[in-house]
């Protein structure tokens, strides 16, 4: 194992936080040391989370129609992205969607709405939903993500049974003005602080691939550590056509893996969630990424489709992990495939008149 990563992880395990210089070093790991980085970061992951993966499910309660101008967002003001646009789901549909996520294997439901922030009426609407959901599923964890909070709203959500509040910092303070002008970085910090002060578990993360520098990615991660975010969603930009970041493809699977490893090393005991863009950007490295991160979303995202929920659960099993809160098989990575059916017989290419699939 490369000594510098092993030594770094030993120091982190002993209680010495990684520095910004360490994080930058991790981000710039050469290809031939990438696996040793993953192995080192995996020690931290195993130390704090064992073989568990938290499975989260998004319910987009209100989609699109947002007056804010976040450049990365398909729901922003003026977005021409071809997405679903609808106002608040009724309670029956919202609860049906949340229940579908629980049936599919999730243990945390993330209730999200587009917009600058909720009115008090919106907060009551979500409070009612959470009360009903928790009445039917007492063990479910609920995270709300409703935008910028006003005084008293976090307390009301907590009182209603909401466990966590998500509001991402998204990027470094020094880059924030380049990706949104309708609110400030300080506004975002203020909402995370309000949530935390009200006793909600703060969930705040970032989006990589917004044109930020390596130093700015490190700056964002260190800010999240300083802010005390309990769970850190790491999104990889999905550049929707019809948004200002259309055509921005700055990421590679290896870079995404390095970013996740950096997050693990900077915030070793926090929930690192591989969030939007997982399938698109990590591609065949999704399994390796699970050895560093300990949380994913199941199925679809807010405005884009993810891979099938069963493929997500298979990803977890195949890599030797178990869903947090689920019954434990003896050794998940050694369980035979649960897929039914026989191998598909080849009926194309050599020996046929049908074109090969090469
Ligand atoms: S990220 Fe949120 S606030 Fe920004 S445009 Fe999208 S929905 Fe609106």
TrEMBL record:
<feature type="binding site">
    <location>
        <position position="70"/>
    </location>
    <ligand>
        <name>[4Fe-4S] cluster</name>
    </ligand>
</feature>
<feature type="domain" description="Radical SAM core">
    <location>
        <begin position="51"/>
        <end position="275"/>
    </location>
</feature>
<keyword id="KW-0001">2Fe-2S</keyword>
<keyword id="KW-0093">Biotin biosynthesis</keyword>
<comment type="pathway">
    <text>Cofactor biosynthesis; biotin biosynthesis; biotin from 7,8-diaminononanoate: step 2/2.</text>
</comment>
<dbReference type="InterPro" id="IPR013785">
    <property type="entry name" value="Aldolase_TIM"/>
</dbReference>
<feature type="binding site">
    <location>
        <position position="73"/>
    </location>
    <ligand>
        <name>[4Fe-4S] cluster</name>
    </ligand>
</feature>
<dbReference type="InterPro" id="IPR007197">
    <property type="entry name" value="rSAM"/>
</dbReference>
<keyword id="KW-0479">Metal-binding</keyword>
<feature type="binding site">
    <location>
        <position position="66"/>
    </location>
    <ligand>
        <name>[4Fe-4S] cluster</name>
    </ligand>
</feature>
<keyword id="KW-0808">Transferase</keyword>
<keyword id="KW-0004">4Fe-4S</keyword>
<feature type="binding site">
    <location>
        <position position="143"/>
    </location>
    <ligand>
        <name>[2Fe-2S] cluster</name>
    </ligand>
</feature>
<feature type="binding site">
    <location>
        <position position="110"/>
    </location>
    <ligand>
        <name>[2Fe-2S] cluster</name>
    </ligand>
</feature>
<protein>
    <recommendedName>
        <fullName>Biotin synthase</fullName>
        <ecNumber>2.8.1.6</ecNumber>
    </recommendedName>
</protein>
<keyword id="KW-0949">S-adenosyl-L-methionine</keyword>
<keyword id="KW-0408">Iron</keyword>
<keyword id="KW-0411">Iron-sulfur</keyword>
<feature type="binding site">
    <location>
        <position position="203"/>
    </location>
    <ligand>
        <name>[2Fe-2S] cluster</name>
    </ligand>
</feature>
<comment type="subunit">
    <text>Homodimer.</text>
</comment>
<feature type="region of interest" description="Disordered">
    <location>
        <begin position="326"/>
        <end position="358"/>
    </location>
</feature>
<dbReference type="InterPro" id="IPR002684">
    <property type="entry name" value="Biotin_synth/BioAB"/>
</dbReference>
<dbReference type="InterPro" id="IPR010722">
    <property type="entry name" value="BATS_dom"/>
</dbReference>
<comment type="similarity">
    <text>Belongs to the radical SAM superfamily. Biotin synthase family.</text>
</comment>
<dbReference type="InterPro" id="IPR024177">
    <property type="entry name" value="Biotin_synthase"/>
</dbReference>
<dbReference type="Pfam" id="PF04055">
    <property type="entry name" value="Radical_SAM"/>
</dbReference>
<feature type="binding site">
    <location>
        <position position="273"/>
    </location>
    <ligand>
        <name>[2Fe-2S] cluster</name>
    </ligand>
</feature>
<comment type="function">
    <text>Catalyzes the conversion of dethiobiotin (DTB) to biotin by the insertion of a sulfur atom into dethiobiotin via a radical-based mechanism.</text>
</comment>
<dbReference type="InterPro" id="IPR058240">
    <property type="entry name" value="rSAM_sf"/>
</dbReference>
<dbReference type="InterPro" id="IPR006638">
    <property type="entry name" value="Elp3/MiaA/NifB-like_rSAM"/>
</dbReference>
<dbReference type="Pfam" id="PF06968">
    <property type="entry name" value="BATS"/>
</dbReference>
């Amino acid at each position: 194992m490369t000594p510098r990563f092993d030594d770094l992880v030993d120091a982190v395990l002993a209680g010495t936080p990684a520095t910004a210089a360490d994080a930058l070093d991790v981000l710039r790991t050469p290809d031939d040391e990438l696996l040793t980085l993953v192995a080192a970061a995996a020690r931290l992951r195993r130390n704090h989370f064992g073989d568990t993966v938290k499975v989260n499910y998004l319910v987009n309660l209100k989609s699109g129609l947002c007056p804010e101008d976040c450049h990365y967002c398909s729901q922003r003001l003026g977005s021409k992205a071809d997405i679903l646009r609808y106002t608040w789901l009724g309670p029956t549909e919202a609860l049906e969607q949340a229940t579908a996520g629980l049936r599919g294997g999730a243990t945390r439901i993330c209730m999200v709405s587009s917009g600058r922030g909720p009115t008090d009426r919106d907060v009551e609407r979500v409070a009612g939903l959470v009360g009903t959901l928790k009445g039917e599923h007492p063990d479910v964890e609920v995270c709300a993500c409703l935008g910028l909070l006003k005084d008293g709203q976090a307390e009301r959500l907590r009182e209603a049974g909401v466990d966590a509040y998500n509001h991402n910092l998204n990027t470094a303070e020094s880059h924030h003005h380049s990706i949104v002008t309708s609110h400030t970085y300080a506004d975002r910090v203020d909402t995370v602080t309000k949530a935390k002060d009200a006793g909600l578990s703060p969930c705040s993360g970032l989006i990589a691939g917004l044109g930020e520098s390596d130093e700015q990615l490190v700056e964002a991660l260190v800010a999240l550590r300083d802010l005390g975010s309990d769970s850190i969603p790491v999104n990889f930009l999905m550049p929707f056509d019809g948004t200002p970041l259309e055509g921005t493809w700055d990421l590679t699977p290896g870079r995404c893996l390095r970013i996740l490893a950096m997050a693990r090393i900077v915030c070793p005991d926090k929930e690192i969630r591989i969030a939007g863009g997982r399938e698109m950007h990590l591609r065949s490295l999704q399994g390796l990424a699970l050895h560093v991160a300990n949380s994913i979303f199941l199925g679809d995202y807010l405005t884009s489709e993810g891979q099938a929920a069963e493929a997500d659960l298979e990803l977890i099993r195949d890599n030797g992990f178990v869903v947090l809160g689920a019954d434990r098989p003896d050794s998940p990575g050694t369980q035979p495939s649960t897929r039914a059916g026989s191998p598909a017989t080849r009926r194309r290419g050599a020996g046929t008149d049908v074109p090969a699939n090469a």
